[in-house]
């Protein structure tokens, strides 16, 4: 392979996968393959056309093994599902066995060891055997982990580190809207919440990543969840319908991770359908001495999720093999030369 | 040495050195020596007493070589002067030759290669020969470099990265107040500014560190400087006098560092005597796509300068030998176990 630029494949050409496609195309990163599930009506269509770009000569395929073997990407951007369930494990394992690095937006993959430990360890071993790296990244990598760790680096004493943020369900497509229980009734939501089916929250995973980044030893996690109810009828673009007054626009998860060092990490995350005029924010406060404050206003979460993954490509390609969480990567930064030069280890892939 | 905690010495028991002393004492870090210049009226006094603490059994001494040889600190916190002039080089070299790591608040030392290249390279070689690390850190490490690099890590395109911040001269003692031309007339200030004596600004140094952290290639630097004039009489604690209306409270430096990648880095830093009710802030905006924003309100710059240095101790003790700038250290973080356990390489010191 004489071409020195990192060659990327898209796994999951949904809302996020197509946004990553557009951003990679703009930055001149070669996109060599696109993979979806068998039976998808996207199979056979050109990835560029689906993304609203000129045709890229990259047909969406559903034969993952063959596609990866034929196209030999250095890195695969995965935007399929949140949790490290068996189906997602199989997707990551297929990519790893093909010798490609994995960057995934799956929230649990930011730090999957506490919640899906057996599969995470299996994936870590598999990636080590194949000499590639698997990393979960996205908005939370920079805004919930990196910035917060640096902020806390100016603390003399640290009692709590508390984040409050909100994101717009309409930026992330119907799968995420359903996960946020948009259009549920309060009763339905309460029933779901009381049941045993509650999965680990995004916030809990992020707090584990933050604890690792700060070097704190995680103890007991707690989650409190409250519905966010529509005060009037609000249109939901992700579901293509109006949400009636009294039904859910989404919900707030407040996660607390107690640590053995006595520092409580807290994240209160509201994912809901926005009304006109609302914008994402991300605000953190570290109590202790001195009190430390950080706020990001008008955050474009959908963009920053995808751009963070893209700026992480060189870090992941260069990282040691295994399931490497973001606390073990170099400090996040803008990659000015992406698409222009090799980040290193790629040429061996 | 069976004691595994990192043993620290203070070089320069002025306002900042004594603040570092108090913070280290609180965190249980052993303080083993204190050094000042010959002729200082602090010689012979107990460092703890000078810092408003119980006596520490650490007399301030002015025989640096002998003190370092007898007390064998792992790391020396230096808070003496801003620039890497010959006198400061001699201080760092004395510490390095004694086999101790150096953490300094000297602003130019955050990234001294562009402005004091010959001395910086000499110090780098000396530190490598002696197996120790010399690092300039402080508030700017986290707030002007680390946070900004992580923020820019969610950019798709980056045109400018612009910081605006202010700090209170009264937090830093008389040496800094004189550097900020507090109590000068506008004419005196204009004369100084027009003359050849202008030294590199803090901002220029910070922009070079930021460029290194983001991986950008620095080009031409520019500095514009404007006086900040008292609108009424303002008391200045650092100089112990009132600043009359029309005289300088300080000044604003606006630095621009053009980079070969086409990204302009800008920092506008106002250091002045504050009026009642004013507080430090630190605000950054990255233009390009998407626009990225970060703001720290009510920043306690005097504290964060010292706490950042303290949280950097384990990083510097563990770092490779040489003059290692903060862009080459791990991501800044809170060090919960400081004063409790060895960070590693110290035992070889």
Automatic annotation (TrEMBL), chains A, B:
SUPFAM superfamilies: NAD(P)-binding Rossmann-fold domains
Official protein name in the record: 4-hydroxy-tetrahydrodipicolinate reductase
Dihydrodipicolinate reductase N-terminal domain sequence ranges: 7-102
Tree of life domain: Bacteria
Gene Ontology terms for molecular function: 4-hydroxy-tetrahydrodipicolinate reductase
One GO BP annotation of this record: lysine biosynthetic process via diaminopimelate
The protein's Enzyme Commission number: 1.17.1.8
Domain named 2,4-diaminopentanoate dehydrogenase C-terminal: residues: 147-331
Top-level enzyme category: oxidoreductase
This protein's UniProt keywords: NADP, Oxidoreductase
């Amino acid at each position: 392979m004489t071409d020195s630029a990192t060659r990327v494949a898209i796994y999951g050409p949904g809302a996020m996968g197509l946004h990553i496609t557009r951003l990679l195309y703009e930055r001149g990163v070669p996109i060599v393959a696109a993979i979806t599930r068998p039976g998808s009506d996207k199979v056979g269509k050109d990835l560029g056309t689906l993304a609203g770009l000129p045709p890229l000569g990259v047909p969406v395929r559903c034969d993952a093994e063959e596609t990866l073997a034929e196209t030999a990407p250095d890195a695969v951007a995965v935007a399929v599902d949140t949790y490290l369930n068996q189906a997602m494990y199989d997707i990551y394992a297929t990519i790893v066995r093909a010798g490609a690095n994995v960057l995934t937006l799956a929230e649990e993959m930011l730090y999957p060891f506490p919640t899906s430990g057996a599969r995470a360890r299996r994936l870590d071993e598999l990636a080590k055997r194949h000499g590639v790296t698997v990393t979960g990244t996205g908005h939370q990598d920079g805004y919930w982990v990196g910035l917060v760790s640096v902020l806390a680096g100016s603390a003399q004493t640290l009692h709590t580190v508390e984040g409050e943020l909100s994101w717009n369900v309409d930026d992330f497509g119907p799968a995420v809207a359903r996960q946020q229980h948009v259009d549920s009734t309060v009763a339905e939501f309460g029933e779901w919440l009381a049941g045993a089916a509650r999965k680990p929250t995004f916030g809990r995973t992020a707090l584990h990543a933050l604890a690792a980044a700060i070097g704190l030893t995680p103890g007991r996690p707690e989650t409190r969840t409250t519905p966010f109810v529509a005060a009037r009828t609000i249109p939901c673009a992700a579901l293509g319908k109006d949400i009636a007054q009294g039904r859910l626009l989404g919900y707030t998860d407040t996660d607390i991770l107690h640590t053995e060092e006595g520092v409580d990490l807290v994240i209160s995350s509201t994912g809901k359908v926005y009304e006109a005029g609302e914008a994402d924010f991300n605000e953190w406060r570290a109590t202790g001495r001195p009190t430390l404050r950080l706020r990001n206003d008008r955050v474009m979460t959908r963009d920053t999720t995808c751009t963070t993954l893209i700026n992480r490509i060189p870090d992941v390609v260069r990282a040691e093999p295994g399931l490497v969480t973001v606390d073990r990567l170099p400090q996040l930064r803008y990659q000015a030369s992406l698409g222009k030069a090799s980040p290193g280890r790629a040429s061996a892939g």
